[in-house]
Structure formats: C-alpha cells, structure tokens
Amino acid sequence: MLKSFSTISLTVALCAIAMSAFIGSDPIMQIRLQQNYVVTDTLPKLSLPEGANPDDPDWKDVDLEAKAPVQPLSPTDEAKLFLLPPGYKIEPVLTEPAIQQPAAISFDGNGRMYVLELRTYMLTADSKDELKPTSRISRWEDKNNDGVYETGTAFVDNLIFPRFVLPYGKDCILTMESDADNVYKYTDTNGDGKADKKELFTTKYGRSGNVEHQQAFMYWGMDNWLYSTVNAFRVRETPNGVIREKTGFNRAQWGITHDDNGKLWFQGGASGVPSYFQFPVQYGNFDVPNELAKGFDVPYGAAVKLADMQGGMDEVRQPDGSLNHVTGSAGNDVYRGDRLPAELKGQYFYGEPVARIVRQINPVVTEGLTTLHNVYQDQKSEFLRSTDPLFRPIDMTTAPDGTLYITDMYHGIIQEGQWTQKGTYLRTKIEQYQLDKVVGLGRIWRITYEGKERDKTRPNMYAEKTADLVKNLAHPNGWWRDAAQQVLVQRKDLSVVPQLTAMALTNKNTLARTHALWTLEGLGALKTSVVQKMLKDANPHLRIQALRASETVYKAGDKTLEADYKQALTDANTDVLIQAMLTAKFLKLPDLDNGIKTAMASNKAAGVKLVGEQILTPPKQRNMGPFGAPELSANQKAQVERGALIYNELCSQCHGNNGMGTPAGNGRLLAPALAGSQHMQAHPEYPIRVVLHGLEGAIEGKMYAGGMMASMKEQSDEWVADVLSYIRNGLSNDASLISAQQVARVRQKTADQKGSYQYAQLSKLTPYELQPQALTVTASHTASTRIGGNVSPASAFTYEGWSTGGRQEKGMWYQIEFPKEVNVAELRFTASQSIKKGWKPTPGQPMGSMKIPFIQNYPRAFIIEVSSDGQTWHEVPAEAKGVEGDNIISLNGVKAKFLKMQLSESLANDPDEIPWSMGQLKVFAQ
C-alpha cells in the first residue's frame, strides 16, 4: 500500500507517536526515527544499467517507470495488512525505537527475552559500515504482565554484527561477533541488566564469508549439546572444558530448532527451503530423494507489486510482483506450545522474507522417511502473508506464554551487499522504490487464536528449588520443558537424581520421561540399568530416546550395552530399527556391517533400506560452498585412523576412551582431559615436546593421580605425528594435523632436553600467540576482501581478511609493530580466494550447483624484514613463496620490535588483477 510523497511527514510523525505510546516516550529516538525516513519525491523514470540486455530473463519486461517511495507504517497499520487463517490474530509485543533491526530472540529461564539487534545490516545498498561495532543484544521484560515487553536494557552493546544469542544461565549469555573465532560468555554480576564480565567460552568456532554465510544460532539441543548453522560440529561444556564432536553438514544459514523427539531441524538460506532434517545431524549426512512434496518450492505471497527479487524478472510472478520461486529463507520453529490449536503442535514454521511469508509445514513420515508439505499449497496461500513490502519475517519462536512469536526486521533491503551492486537488477529496484532509506526498524509479533488466552504464568526458574524444577519437565509447553532441563543441567544438583530416575521410568507423560532421561544424561548421572529398562519399554518413542542417550554411557566405557544394541537391530518398529542402525554407525560397533545387513533383512521399509545402504556404502559428501568444511584427504584420513589405533591401544588407559580423562576417585582424574584441550589445540610444538620428552607435576595448579606423562621419544616421527593428529582432530578438538617433518624439527631442536618437562618450564619454551589487539599494524595498500567489510589492515587477523585490493606489485608491504621487542617464532595466515572479476551467478540457479570461478590471492613471492626502531631493517631468512590455503612461515625466534612482509615480485600481465590477501593471521613469539 503506497502513499504519495505529500503524506510522508504526517505518516512518519503519526508512526513515531503510535510507537511512543506503545513502548514509552523517547524524544531523541523519535527524532532519529524520523530522520531515518527522509526520502526524495518520486524519482524520474529509470533506464537499464549500462550493459544490461533487455532480452535477458533478468530484465525482460522490467518496469522502470517512476514510483513513489516505499514508506514504513506504524505497527498498528502494519498489523492491518497481515493475512492469517480464520481465528488467528497477531499483535506487537516489542517494536522500534526500543529495538532496531531484530534478527532473532531467545528466552532465559525467567522468561526474559533477549533480542539480537543487527543494527548495521544493509543500512545502504552498498552495505556500508556493516561491520561497525554498533550492534547489540538487548534484554526485555514484561514486568506488569500485560503482554508487552516494556522494560529493557542493552545487555551487551557495541558488538560487530553478532551471530547469535544463547541464554546460558541466570544473567548470562553466549555470543560471538562476525569474522571472529571465539565464543564469549557475558555475565551481569551486579544485577543492573548489563553484562560486566566477559569470559572465553570456546574458540575455533568461526567460519569465513560475508555476513550471510557465517555461522549463526548457537542452539541448546535436547541432547545437551550446542549446535550452530554452517559448522559441522557440536560443542558441550564439561567440568574439564568445552569439548566438541564432528557432525554431518547441516548446510544451514539462519535457523535451528528441534521437535519433541529432540531431532534438530536446520533452515537453509539461499535455497529457500529447510536444509537438513531427515535424521539427527550427529549421525552424518544421508541423501534422501523427494524430501519435499511436489510444488514445495513455489511461494504464495500476497501482491506486493515491487518485483524486488535478486534473481530478476525470471523470479517474479506477474502481475502481482510477488516471488514465484523460493530464493531466501530464515528462522524456523517446530511449534511445541499449548496456546494455539492442537493441530499446530509438531508443525514446522519458517520465514521467507523475500516472499514476505511465514510458511507452515506438515512433516509426513512414511516407512521411516520424512516428506515436507506446505499446508496451504492447495489454497495457493501461506500461513502468514502481508501486503506490506517491508514485512521481513526472519525468526519464529515458541514462547513461554505458549504462543508463537515472529521476529520481523521490517526493513527495506533483505539481501547482502554482494548481490546489490550497481548495475544489478536488484539495485535498480532498490533505487526505484528507495528501499535503502528504510532502516533502523523492527517488530516482534505474537500470534494468538480466538478462545485461547496466552499463558500469563511468569517463569521464575532461577529462583525455584531444584526439586520443584523437575515438575516443569512435564509441562504441556515445550519451552518450559526445555528451559527446566537446561537449568537443572547447569545447576549440577545431584540431589534430584532419584526423582529424575523415577520420572524417566514410571511417569505417564512420555515427554516428561524423555526430558528426565536427558536431564540425567546432562548431569552425568545416567545409569546403564535405567537405559536398559527404557530400551525394553513398550513405547517406541522411548526406546529411540534410550538408544540415543545410551551412546554417552557407551562412549564412557560401558561396553555391556553391545548386547542391547544387537537386540535393537531386530526391533519390529521401523523408526526404532533405523535409530539402532544410526547408533551402531555412530559408535562404530563391532561387526557393524553384518549388523546392518541383518537389520535390512528383517525390515523392508524404505527408510531401513536407504539408511542401511548408505551406512554400508556412504555417499560422496557434498561441500556446499560456505556451508561445509573441507574433507580430509585420503592420506590425512589414513593418518588420523592410524593415530586412533595408537590412542585406543595406549593413551586411552589414562586419558579416557573419549579423551575426557579416566576417573581415579575422589573427583580426580588419572591424567588430563585431552578432549577440548586448549593446550592440545595450541601451537603444535607444545604437544610434540610433551610426547617426545614427557611432562610431570601440576598443570595449571592441578595434580593428576597418574603423576606424569612418560617420554615417547623412542617412537618414530610418523608415530608421534599420527597420534597427535588424531588427538588434535579426532577427540572433539579442531586443530591442524601434524606432519612427521614438524616432529623431526622439534626433535632436533630439543635434542639437549634432559628428563621430563615441568609445566611452567614448558610454557616458557613453547611458542605462544600474540593477541592482535596489542599490535599496531599498517600496510602500503588496504582494501576490504568483500563489500561492506572493514577497511583496515587489522582485518588480516579476522575471517574477513585484509587485501591490497589491486594487483600484486613489487614493494607492497604489510607491517606489524609489537609493544616491545619480542622473539618472533612464526607467522601463520590463510590466503583467501575471491571470485573472478566480472562473473555473476545465473538467476535462479541453486548455490550448491554453481561453478564459481575463484582466483587465489596468496602472495607469490616476498621477503621478511625486521627492525628494532622502524628505520633500519634487515632481511630474515625465511620461506619466500606463498601457497594456496594455509601458510606457515618459521622465523626461528628472531628478535624484532617491527616486522615487515614485502612483495619481491610483481604479477605482470595479470588479466585477473590478483591482489595479495591474508586472513586469520596469527603471530607466535617465544
């Protein structure tokens, strides 16, 4: 619904007044709000950009006539434009100016709502300043219980495009920033609603790419592991640190949720559809044909007229200007509440912000395989639609009050700057309707149903007694069950173990039994006897949960469960049988192949056949651009497998089968935990020295019952490299493999070592990473590696990376100044790649099938120079050629206050104008 320019001032003023009445008066914010929407009058007719072919599908029949600018509406007016099925209503619970550009919400155990505010997302069509530190995570409460969140604080402010918010206990969250590698825990210690304590939670968590392609949605699964999009691993906090395990690729961008069975559902982005949902992702990937019902990829949005689709006119449904083929999706939720119609329970919801719709999906399971159906496809409609072109639904959440919340960024542009460049179809549409002017807004909506009042019970779980919390595991709203389980697990109060055990074994509520089982698992109190009783339960749902939970017990060393697994592989229920096959695969049970063949022979269901065949003959893993991680090469896999054999034959006796350390009584371990160990994942020289020469005494003040790690220097370089590669890559760690050559160098370097190391001594000898915030960096040339990035030499230390921008020329340099003279041991960086100049994607082509022409931006030839004063320089002997991918430059402890890397050759006659780029730069001193 477009209005003439003459009404803009009145409309904006009324909008600001309405919002002030809704969330409280803030004159400064109102002035800022009005300034956001200063738009020009109707623009003159546009013309095709230079080089555009009017016969191309992108441009054919494109409307370039002058248009009135799209204007924002007040929440009250926007609500009038929503289209919902009969009986449903929608109402705002929090809007601008209190929040800006919300991207996700999450509730803590007291029902307080954390809002991820991406305040820098697409403020201009060129995504200018997208990585400025002005985003925030705010926290909101409905103190008067009227359904509106009126009281809030900036819980963490001045963030660089934060990736997620996960409440992690009372007054505590986990989050991380874009182009970063570390997840931090932020805590409010004085109760003022603002975090004042920041602690490292885990590292090696980031992925590179533009802001749409990085990891997001750290999510607490029912199995007590934390998952995220993009990353093919899961993490978990233990008393001995944060551990991780590899999973299948989830190929998701923005959204994770789980159902009552604990299965995770991941949401794609560019695909426009759910990404991975068939089986729990920890069991790897299975290729299932026809997962989506026929016609699933056709959206049925309302007539918005704009035709502002990145794919061009080929993606436009005429004459209403809506999207004719899904192209972008975001946010998801399996509704598990209790205040909407019962038929919605277990239904999957996700947003398509390009189409301006929220879709309801009915998952239909047949012979163990799931097919997704658009509930409103026959009516050529969707669950929620809007004729307001600024409606941008990007997250869905089952709320504590039992209803469904929709996060609406209410934004002009909903495509990252890489795809809105000058000359593109989408940029033309953005300028035609002045969509780049609509920024800084955002609304959170509640969907209710006639005759079903929202639950007004206010959660207060952090103040409840532990025994009272257990009853919430039987609550009809899945949010309450999840929150209670998480609080119980974090509280670590073992006094409720008998209460939980009784609930798991005897409660009449299947969902209560499920959560009690997983709470026991999370507390480390799950006994084999409980699992074995539940494996014989008449309810197949509970047999499935018992199989999954038992995996923790088996990995901790109880092999008596093998007989139970063998029995499960003959279960008459198709879903239980499939789970037994997945568990057998996950645990690598003895005689796995014969067990799978026996299962397949006993049940001819399509799901059993598919899972069995793909376990026996795994399909080739796909690597979907930024949504997967590189597979190990055949030689690397062989090395890790050799290392696993060594570890299980020798090291596991002290360090534990799963790397968590072998208990030695009285809360002590026989030897340190290696899973999730920062020492094992740090510079390779530390673990190599330990294996070669041994380690004794306290480690960071902690003694171990085993006393010492014996020297293994009699073993070959290959042996040491193999076992350490397995530990660094296969025991919930994520670090580089180690080569025999690296071991040989350290062996030669430490030939004079007498006896075992003491930890304090070893710490001083091992190279340590210098923190980038303490360094001053400059460069002869600087450009961002991507549109909208920070233009700074310091970006070399992040996933975003630094680039010269132009072609490599002799004399280009990158310089680091240290706070004081240090002995520089090593430089490490990743040489990024970029898309070949002039290439653009084919409209409508799925990202996974695109053949993108990349150019490699590693430095072709260079020298390293050092200086004590920044004036007099001398060259250091070092490897002078860059390579594609990871680069390691050994400097052997050269003393320097300044260090300069300088190109020694030009790339003459280079039609691709290959720049010099570096990312994830690390500097080690000793």
UniProtKB/TrEMBL annotation:
State the InterPro entries in the record. 6-blade_b-propeller_TolB-like, ARM-like, ARM-type_fold, Cyt_c-like_dom, Cyt_c-like_dom_sf, DUF7133, FA58C, Galactose-bd-like_sf
Alphabetically sorted, this entry's keywords are: Heme, Iron, Metal-binding
Q: Which residues form the F5/8 type C domain?
A: 763-886
UniProt domain Cytochrome c: residue ranges = 638-731
Q: What is this protein called?
A: C-type cytochrome
The species is Spirosoma flavum
